[in-house]
Amino acid sequence: MQAIYSLFPKLFQGESLEMLADRLHETGIGSVDLLIRDGYWVTPPGLRQEAPNYVRYMQQQRIEVPFATTSYMPEMLLNDPGPLEVMADLGIRSFRLGYFQYDASVPLNSQLKDARVQMEKLAELCSKHRVKAIYQVHHGRTHLIQHSMSALSIVHDLPPEHVGIMLDPGNQFHDGRENSGKAVALLGRYLAAIGVKDVAVIQDTSKRHLPNKGWSTVWAPCQEGLINWHEISESLQVSDDPVIVNLQMHVHLPDRRMLLDTLREEWAYVVNVFG
After folding, report:
1. How far apart are CA 190 and CA 161, in angstroms?
2. Quick one: which of 177, 143, 167, 173 has its CA closest to 233?
3. Source organism's superkingdom (predicted)?
4. Cα–Cα nearest to 94, from 44, 143, 33, 45
């Protein structure tokens, strides 16, 4: 497996581009997502100007931008492929999509079939721009794709050069656990990325009378959480394709110094585990 590391920089929202680069240098992180969202450094309306400025500045600071995190849905890109052109021109060959939403009033299988149709059309469009759309597995009742089997159903038989799946063990833990080795084997060449964030479980004993017995899942640094990242890394070694290892730190710490120290340790831990 060829690991391509990148940080999802959501935790630095509100800081300047210059400060973001300083934070990355300070924590030893040499690659970062092109994050395209309102309220961040690159916004959808300002994409054509802001994205080149972002990538150029990061490259000047010797920080790579190998991956993009977006909220674009297939239908949005089919109506306006401009973002694909921008990413391709910047040398970014893979990007994360937005999420298909689950509607309890519609048969689940119908929703999966519709998502598959959209992904097929998107795969054709991505092939024209030589980019790859990656769909992230996510937890929560509002999300349609929550595990590897449903993820495979929306990309099966499509060209893996242009569509893929991001497994996310931390997200998935909120709804239950999935055997990583089997998930990787099931997805095969469609496994394009790993979302890396960890969890811990805590119990509020005052709520033991509730159906969940007071237990809840909280975010934790990868070096402290429950997920066996060594096992996941080992399962990925069979892959001959590049895999985006996308660190998505979700731990919120009130002290900035503590957050940066934790992020530095987490990044080093992840790079060591995935080699």
Report:
1. 8
2. 167
3. Bacteria
4. 33
In this structure, are residues 180 and 173 in contact, taking their beta carbons and an 8 Å threshold? no
Q: What is the pLDDT of residues 24-76, one digit of tens each?
A: 999 999 999 999 999 999 999 999 999 999 999 999 999 999 999 999 999 99
By three-state DSSP, how is residue 116 classified? Answer: helix
Helices 82-89 and 108-129: crossing angle in degrees, nearest 10, is: 50
Distance CA 74, CA 76 (A): 5
Does the pLDDT of residue 239 top 90, yes or no?
A: no
Q: Beta-strand (E) ranges in 137-274? A: 163-167, 191-196, 198-203, 215-220, 242-247
Token pair, residue 180, equals: 């990583």
Per-residue pLDDT, averaged over 94-100, amounts to 98
Work out the percent of the chain whose per-residue pLDDT is above 70: 100
- Angle (CA) 15 21 22, round 5°: 85
How large is the average pLDDT for residues 237-241?
88
CA 47, CA 168: separation in Å to the nearest integer? 27
Q: Give the side-chain half-sphere CA count within 13 A for 274.
A: 28
Task: Please name which of 11, 48, 14 lies closest in space to residue 33, comparing C-alpha atoms.
Answer: 11
* Average predicted confidence (pLDDT) for the chain: 96
**Of 183, 182, 107, 189, residue with least CA distance to 155:** 189
- The mean per-residue pLDDT over the stretch 253-270 comes to 94
